[in-house]
Amino acid sequence: MASPVNYTVTGNIGVITVDNPPVNALSWAVRQGLLDAFETAAKDATEAVLLVCDGRTFIAGADISEFGTPPRAPHLPDLCDHMEAFDKLFVAAIHGTALGGGFEVALSANYRCAVATAKVGLPEVKLGLLPGAGGTQRTPRLAGVDAALQLITSGAPLGATAAKDVGLVDEIIDGDLLEGALAYVGRLLADSAPQRRTSTLEVPQHDAAIFDQVRAQLAKKARGQVAPQAIVDCIEKAAGSTYDEGVAYERRRFLELMDGDQSKALQHFFFAERAAAKIDDMPEDVQIRSVESVGVIGGGTMGGGIAMTFANAGIPVTLVEINDDALERGLSIVDRNYAGSVKRGKLSETQAAACRDLISGATDYAKLADVDLVVEAVFEDPNLKKEIFSKLDAVCKDGAILATNTSYQDVNEIAAATGRPEDVLGLHFFSPAHIMKLLEVVRGAETANDVLATCMKLARRIRKVPVVAGVCYGFIGNRMLQPYGEQAQLLLLEGATPEQVDSAMEDFGMAMGPMRVFDLAGLDVGYKAREALSDKEKGDPAGYRVPDLLVEAGRLGQKSGSGFYSYDENRRPTPDPEVHRLIEDTAAELGIERRDISDDEIVNRLVGALVDEGRKIIDEGIAQRASDIDVVYVYGYGFPAFRGGPMFYASQSAK
Ligand code: 3H9
Predict the structure, then answer these.
(1) Peptide bond just before 541 cis, omega within 30 deg
(2) Which protein residue's CA is at the shortest distance from atom 48 of ligand 1?
């Protein structure tokens, strides 16, 4: 098999080219190819080597699919040391993303040049790992301790210019990378630039207190995660010891993490997220429809957020409301959200204004005649939704995709209100829609393949993580929430308190415990939804008795100042003895004997409820695969990614 690494000579420069699609990952063949290319270069008459990559990106890291298989020499840390010790000038030329092991290769070069659009980063923390080929030792030597801590504990990449500002990139190349990089190497040779070996540099002066400060921040921000803390330890080691000691320490900590549950879960999740984008029975030659304009019906919190999502991706949106007042209210929510994005530094004023300009308002459905996609986001009234779809059927052009953002309604019934059910599907966004990454793409019985494929592709364009779901009450995520919520209520009656349930789940890693979620969403929402259900659909009455009583006592959650907790004016919760009494009285009324409940029981029963329902969802074909359910729960419901999602967690616990 041809090597994915090529060596050619241009004048006095040896050019090593990596060509291992799709992302030039450092498979064994690439590592061996690099070693061979350096050996060839050592023997010829060239004066320098330049490392470049073919395709869309520089090396994007170690080959994650090789993790868990027996390691095979040359190992990346040795290869990096070997390349750094090379006795001719060594320059890396970066385009796309130089990530993880790929950036560690670049850090072993004497100099790095990059096109302005390139990004560099060490995202290993997102896989529950740390950079294990010298990254924690070389980065602080070039960029200083503060920048290294920020880069490696966040895993967020830096743009080329920002990377140059901190010393991780030496030269920005305008125009063609290879041509510019060859000229740059030529200049370095002409100037007799020294062979600056990163591992031999001193770590710049820094405040030794920074390590404990960052540890404390990470204990909150990355609660329960082991990799971020290990990264701080490694950078501290770099600052206080020789390179050889530091790199040996890094190696030990890397292997520890690689062996641990968290990195296994995060690696599973990396592939789960990518698998979710694939549709098993989709013909390969399916034609994607063009979506260059969108209509959104309903200017509430959800509709406004959906409009922003499309506008933020550069797609013009017509937001439709029933009258001028409602439209004005809707657009003012959008304005407020954009002001918030500017305040939080997510968008510059100019960017926010450009996005906002893409959203126009209308009160007449005729304005939707030419749009490529409509997303209906009005409240959950099935008759209203059907009426809207029949109007859309009358005004929208042929081939327009008609989507409902319903959380629970039957997409097939909504589709049947049109004469073109093949163009209809569900696009279930999560609130706040312009921030939450999950998108359930609900495939109706008659949804056409090209409609589904178009929306899956579009989801990536609007920076969402799409998961295909079939039609059932609540689709994947909300359907699983029902037994989860029911178990949480039963635990209260059997002896737990709201704060114990929440803290057990938050210690497990959930972004928010279930009681705080109920209070945030509003207890009246579930109350109203239950009114429309039969007793059978409602499930065990003990599973909703307490929230019903809370609503009837006017405790609707955060918005009314009390629910399972009492809230102060800053919406900070405090446990409420009145609620404890209500729970105890209800348990007595239902003949439930209260007992001590352990945190483990809380976690096991709540996660168990998710998993049991998840299995039914797979059996019924509502989800394509178990890992899709993991993606839904991590991106939509705050399940900790470092546990891989509920289905993965259950599969590991069963071992
Ligand atoms: C590491 O380097 C450890 C070292 O420090 C220490 C060693 C001792 N390996 O995301 P996409 C596949 S840890 C294998 O859809 P995009 C991916 O599965 C690594 N495969 O494209 C997908 O396959 P498929 C540190 C990989 O354009 C296809 O490539 N590096 C890898 O949206 C396209 O991927 C990272 O964590 C990989 N490293 O985004 C970077 N990367 O088509 C991880 C991708 O069959 N990668 N694939 O589904 C990324 O962040 C994004 O893929 C990237 C491109 C930004 C590069």
Answers:
(1) no
(2) 274
